[in-house]
Design brief:
By secondary structure, this protein is mainly α. It has 4 helices and no strands.
């Protein structure tokens, strides 16, 4: 696999983690939830992979964290949190 394909796969992997990390962020921040052992381990592994991949693409931690928390405090993020709580 060439470098270009490896980079594309890494970026795709990184962005697959984003929706899950955003859900964890909304639950932690908006609901003040404590995660069970499985969820906490899943969150940590996803965040580690996400940050590692982003750093390899020369993104700063600040930029990467901003992507995770994007829309968490917006109306859409809060409404999304409310809808997730209903299911």
């Amino acid at each position: 696999m060439n470098t270009m394909n490896t980079s594309v796969v890494s970026i795709q992997s990184m962005f697959r983690h984003l929706p899950v990390l955003r859900r964890y962020a909304r639950r932690a921040v908006l609901r003040d939830e404590v995660f069970d052992e499985f969820e906490e381990q899943d969150r940590q592994v996803r965040m580690q992979e996400y940050l590692q991949t982003g750093r390899s693409m020369n993104w700063t931690d600040c930029e990467l964290i901003a992507l995770v928390f994007r829309d968490v405090f917006s109306r859409a993020g809060i409404l999304g949190e409310a809808q997730e709580g209903e299911s």
